[in-house]
């Protein structure tokens, strides 16, 4: 298979580049940004991409591409930080920008280039940089620019290309077209990659790693763990797969009853449902720090799982998880050692989970996929569309949607509010137009009036976003009438809630969840 190699310098969007390339039908591998280019790495490689980075090129300890990258003769594409490093290495100048660029920015194309074939002049790019090129590298030509910065360069002699913007981000118009031009017109790659090939490869890997061992999957009923369950039941003997659902007391309303029905429909032979709500609420009592919440929940999952293990698994088993690549990215667990954490995920950063991962006792078949790819895989596996279309739900559940300390009363209030919100979206035919919607219970009360009485009630935030992969997100543009009616239904139905607000923050700068 032809492939494209990405050298990762810690960017939050490195895997997005790989995903876009796979969408275009070409295999892609990610390596540490400072890797030496070996013959083995170059096997079947048609091009090399240098990723972005949270670092500045002038920052102490900033990662740099190995000189061997520029000796391969292959087309090299530098994106943002990668372009800046390419410039510095070729005697150009990069410096802090007087005017920073974040978000959408129009780009003017200055001359013809294969990179911009079929891309209109003035297209809207996606920028995210504080440094800028003051002088291009030797023998580089400027082929595009934004209002304040050089946006793209090209060195014909060395077969080098650079983009200051991020074509991999869905908010960049014609970004996929630009990557397609690089992959097919410049690198001359052949299409030889699709989800069926991924399924074949991952199936063989799972069979080899699992062998005759039994597998335990902690299943939440969400899209990710449900797809893993469907995949495992397709690949391995059903008698060797054990599905354990732990009711944390932090689930959505009626979640456990729905999960019980769903798991039985999968054809699984070993299903275990455990009510541990009192344990989770007890251990979370008085805890407000979101990272501590995640750590407690992750460790408690493992402890309960160990305590409740079926006898068949007492001696030896492998743990399966529905971990996505976004979980690793946000937890700072990228390919290289330069990624920075945004927030931890209990299925990634929990000490007990990491210990099992380091011991090679975990399989995570979705670890290189994004949410929309997981849905594609689920459809291919024949999983119920009602499961596949569900909005994402965090592993720690409502614990990270209750800001501050957690009580049984707050959980109950949030469950009712969330249920009303989601039901209204479905009634109004909005649910499938929104990538993710949920409620957040805030740790403040505001004054209100009920009848003739003055009352203090909780403030509830509604969140609804549109996205492709969860790496970037826009606010869903509700009709004002819908928001007003939904707010009224919530405050009239749940007396503890006195005020409803709507979160209008995009990602970035915000994250999708509040904690």
Keywords:
single chain; 515 residues; alpha/beta; Rossmann fold; GMP Synthetase, Chain A, domain 3; 3 domains; 9-stranded mixed sheet; 33% helix; globular
Describe the structure.
33% of the residues lie in helices and 25% in strands. The radius of gyration is 25 Å and the shape is globular. The strands form three sheets. A nine-stranded mixed sheet has the order 2-1-3-4-9-8-7-5-6, with helices on both faces. The chain has a five-stranded parallel sheet with strand order 12-11-10-13-14, with helices on both faces. It has 515 residues and is α/β, with parallel strands linked by helices. It has three domains: 3-186, Rossmann fold; 195-388, HUPs (Rossmann fold, 3-Layer(aba) Sandwich); 401-502, GMP Synthetase, Chain A, domain 3, CATH 3.30.300. Helix 6 crosses helix 13 and helix 8 packs antiparallel against helix 9 (290-307). It has helices spanning 14-23, 39-42, 81-89, 175-186, 195-210, 223-235, 255-265, 277-284, 290-307, 325-330, 346-349, 351-358, 371-381, 385-388, 408-427, 480-493; strands spanning 3-8, 27-32, 45-50, 76-79, 93-109, 123-135, 141-145, 150-155, 160-163, 214-218, 241-247, 270-275, 317-320, 362-363, 436-450, 453-466, 474-475, 497-502. The chain is built from 16 helices and 18 strands. Strand 11 (241-247), helix 7 (255-265) and strand 12 (270-275) form a beta-alpha-beta unit.
């Amino acid at each position: 298979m032809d492939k494209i190699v990405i050298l990762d310098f810690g960017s939050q969007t490195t895997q997005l580049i790989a995903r876009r390339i796979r969408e275009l039908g070409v295999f892609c591998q990610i390596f540490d940004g400072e890797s030496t280019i070996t013959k083995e790495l170059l096997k079947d490689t048609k091009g090399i991409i240098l990723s972005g980075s949270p670092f500045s090129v002038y920052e102490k300890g900033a990662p740099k591409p190995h000189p061997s990258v520029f000796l391969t003769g292959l087309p090299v594409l530098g994106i943002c930080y990668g372009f800046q490093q390419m410039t510095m290495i070729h005697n150009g100048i990069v410096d802090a920008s007087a005017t920073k660029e974040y978000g959408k920015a129009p780009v003017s194309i200055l001359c013809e280039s294969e990179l911009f074939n079929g891309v209109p002049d003035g297209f809207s790019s996606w920028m995210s940089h504080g440094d800028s090129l003051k002088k291009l590298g030797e023998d580089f030509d400027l082929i595009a620019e934004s209002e304040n910065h050089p946006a793209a360069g090209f060195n014909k002699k060395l077969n080098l290309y650079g983009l200051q913007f991020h074509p991999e981000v869905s908010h960049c118009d014609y970004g996929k077209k630009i990557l397609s031009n690089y992959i097919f017109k410049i690198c001359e790659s052949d299409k030889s990659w699709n989800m069926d090939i991924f399924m074949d490869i991952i199936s063989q890997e799972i069979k080899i790693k699992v062998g005759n061992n039994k597998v335990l999957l902690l299943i939440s009923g969400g899209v990710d763990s449900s797809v893993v369950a469907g995949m495992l039941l397709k690949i391995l003997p059903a008698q060797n797969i054990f599905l354990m659902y732990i009711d944390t007391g932090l689930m959505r309303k009626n979640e456990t009853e729905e999960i019980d029905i769903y798991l039985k429909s999968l054809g699984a032979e070993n299903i275990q449902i455990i009510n541990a709500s009192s344990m989770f609420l007890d251990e979370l009592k008085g805890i407000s720090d979101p990272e501590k919440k995640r750590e407690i929940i992750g460790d408690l999952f493992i402890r309960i799982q160990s305590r409740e293990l079926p006898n068949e698994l007492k001696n030896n088993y492998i743990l399966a998880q529905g971990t996505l690549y976004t979980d690793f990215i946000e937890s700072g667990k990228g390919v290289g050692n330069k990624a920075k954490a945004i927030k931890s995920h209990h299925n990634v950063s929990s000490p007990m989970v990491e210990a099992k991962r380091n011991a090679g006792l975990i399989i995570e078949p979705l670890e290189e996929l994004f949410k929309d790819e997981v849905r594609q895989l689920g459809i291919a596996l024949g999983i119920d569309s009602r499961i596949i279309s569900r909005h994402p739900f965090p592993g720690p559940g409502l614990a990270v949607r209750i800001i501050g300390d957690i009580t049984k009363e707050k959980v109950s209030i949030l469950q009712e509010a969330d249920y009303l919100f989601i039901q209204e979206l479905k009634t109004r035919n909005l649910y499938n137009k929104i990538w993710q919607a949920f409620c957040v219970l805030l740790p403040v009360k505001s004054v209100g009036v009920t009848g003739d009485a003055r009352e203090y009630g909780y403030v509830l935030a509604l969140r609804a976003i549109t996205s492709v992969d969860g790496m970037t997100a826009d606010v869903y543009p509700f009709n004002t009438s819908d928001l007003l009616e939904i707010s009224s239904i919530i405050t009239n139905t749940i007396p503890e809630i006195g005020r409803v607000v709507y979160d209008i923050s995009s990602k970035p700068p915000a994250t999708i969840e509040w904690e």
